[in-house]
C-alpha cells in the first residue's frame, strides 16, 4: 500500500522532476477542470463524489508518502497541487480559459499562502497539512478567477 501511496502522492513521475514539480503537477491537473465540470453538468452528485474521493485520496496518499519519503511535505509530493486545482474548479465554468486562469491564480496563492493556508502549512501535520493549504489556495484561486471572469 505504501508504494501505491507514493505513486499517487508523486503523481507518477511528476513529483520527481528536478525543476518545479508542483507547477508541473498543477499543469497536469489543468485538464481535470473542464472534464470535471462536464461531469458536474450531468450530475452534481457524481461530481461531488469525484471531488471528495480525490481529496480524501490525496490526504491519505500524502500522509503515507511523507512517511515513505522521510520528510514533512516532501517536495516530491505533488498530489496536493492536483487537489488544489480541483478545488479551484469547483467555482468555475468548464472552459479552458477558466482552467488556465485558475492555474495562474492557484500557483500564485500556493506560493503566497494567504490566511488560513499559512497556518495550515505551519501547524497541521500529516496528509491533511500537506493538502490543506493547497485546498485553501485552490478556493482563493477559484474565487479570484470567478471575479475576474465576471468582470470580463
Topology:
Elements: H1 2-9, H2 21-29, H3 32-42, H4 44-69, H5 79-89, H6 96-112, H7 117-123, H8 126-151
Helix pairs in contact: 1-4, 2-5, 3-4, 3-5, 4-5, 4-8, 5-6, 5-8, 6-8, 7-8
Protein described:
- This protein has 152 residues and is mainly α.
- The protein has one domain.
- 76% of the residues lie in helices and 0% in strands.
- The protein is built from 8 helices and no strands.
- The chain has helices at residues 2-9, 21-29, 32-42, 44-69, 79-89, 96-112, 117-123, 126-151.
- The chain is globular.
- The relative contact order is 0.17.
- The mean pLDDT is 96.
Helical element count? Answer: 8
Query: Distance between termini?
Result: 47 Å
Beta strands, count: 0
Q: Which segments are poorly predicted (pLDDT under 50) over 5 or more consecutive residues?
A: none
Salient structural properties:
152 residues, mainly alpha, globular
Provide a brief overview of the structure:
By secondary structure, this protein is mainly α.
Amino acid at each position: 500500500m505504501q508504494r501505491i501511496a507514493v505513486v499517487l502522492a508523486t503523481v507518477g513521475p511528476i513529483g520527481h522532476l528536478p525543476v518545479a514539480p508542483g507547477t508541473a503537477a498543477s499543469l497536469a491537473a489543468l485538464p481535470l477542470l473542464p472534464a470535471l465540470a462536464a461531469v458536474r453538468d450531468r450530475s452534481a452528485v457524481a461530481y461531488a463524489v469525484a471531488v471528495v474521493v480525490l481529496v480524501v485520496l490525496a490526504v491519505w496518499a500524502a500522509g503515507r508518502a511523507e512517511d515513505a519519503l522521510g520528510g514533512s511535505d516532501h517536495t516530491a509530493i505533488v498530489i496536493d497541487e492536483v487537489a488544489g486545482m480541483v478545488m479551484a474548479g469547483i467555482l468555475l465554468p468548464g472552459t479552458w480559459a477558466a482552467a488556465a486562469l485558475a492555474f495562474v491564480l492557484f500557483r500564485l496563492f500556493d506560493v503566497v499562502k494567504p490566511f488560513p493556508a499559512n497556518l495550515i502549512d505551519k501547524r497541521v501535520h500529516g496528509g491533511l497539512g500537506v493538502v490543506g493549504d493547497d485546498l485553501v489556495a485552490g478556493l482563493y484561486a477559484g474565487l479570484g478567477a470567478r471575479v475576474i471572469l465576471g468582470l470580463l
